[in-house]
Write the structure tokens for this entry.
Amino acid sequence: MTGTVTKGAQTRAAILDRAVDLASAEGLEGLSIGRLAAELRMSKSGLFAHFGSKQELQLATIEAAAERFRAAVIEPAREAPDGAPRLRAMGERYLDHLDLYSGGCFWGATSAEYDDRPGPVRDAVAGALDAWLAELERQARIAGVERPERFAFELYAVVMGANARYRLSGDRRVFDYAREALARLEEELPR
Amino acid sequence: MTGTVTKGAQTRAAILDRAVDLASAEGLEGLSIGRLAAELRMSKSGLFAHFGSKQELQLATIEAAAERFRAAVIEPAREAPDGAPRLRAMGERYLDHLDLYSGGCFWGATSAEYDDRPGPVRDAVAGALDAWLAELERQARIAGVERPERFAFELYAVVMGANARYRLSGDRRVFDYAREALARLEEELPR
DNA sequence: GATTTGCACGAACGTTCGTGCTATTCAGTA
DNA sequence: TACTGAATAGCACGAACGTTCGTGCAAATC
């Protein structure tokens, strides 16, 4: 029956939920099946059977992280109208949603990890980030920015930089700096 | 005799030179002693003897990377006078020096990898990055910026963002975007 | 009630990892 | 040329990794 959540699907979802957190802290390579199983109090083989290979687990984890990102950043920001308000909402939502991970931004951690490891995993990570950049670009275009790619890059750099800096220094003031930078970016928008 | 370069020191330097590249691509954890030895055509145990433990190898690699960074970014930028010109030179030198690594910025890769792994390695990485941020901040203060920390963060975010984005997309235009952002930051400076 | 399916388990495989010991080779000095 | 300490190699270890296999059990299907 459509909508029925089987036991297996529940377990799988629980695995992936934990996997996203673990990967955001230890990376997608450091995400070991044995550790993940131990944390979830299940056997390595039982967990493994859900995915068939480590790579499939990694890809499923990426998809789960993308889903979390959509639910926490993209979707809420849709309440704001296209263009400038949406851009402001996405930047703000991104900074807020960082608390959802126990190990900082999933994309910050995994993109640095896989940028030099060709393969399906890298492609999936790059695809997810490209999609976000493309959405930023689209909204910048709607807002009337003359060079949306440049604008999207700068917004990305500021918020990801804040994540990276906070992770290493523990100094929450970087979020204030980031918000100021976003505000100054906003002033660039034609009105 | 002081200044004499023994055979061991030469080997050690060659190991670390390769280790910095390998770690910038595979991370400090992915930097395996066996692989490193194979690439340098020496035995695992022979290489290992130079450091005594993997952690010591990692710490030495970080120090070597810091040295490379100083030689390629900090020192050349010293030719420019303190303040605004120095800030411009450091941003520019950073972007240029990225070609020195085969796997992108060493600090971008390792700081994301270790931000959630407490210990001496994390401390060393954080220390090196803090030192750079502090230097940026110092120069911003000399240039008369009202809030040097904020300025340093923004410069950092832009250039590290360019590295991350280029690594994943392969699109060199991000360097142009970064340079424009640096130019706009420069306009902020009091004259 | 019999049979099939979904899900999880424990044991074991081969490989790679870091690390420890011992033997060998090499360079520089007496 | 013999000696000596530094530098490198050889070999083995225990642990962790991803993966495979056969099995147990509960729910669903017939």
In short: The radius of gyration of chain B is 18 Å. Residues 6-8, 11, 42-47, 49-50 of chain B lie near DNA strand D (CB under 10 Å from a C1').
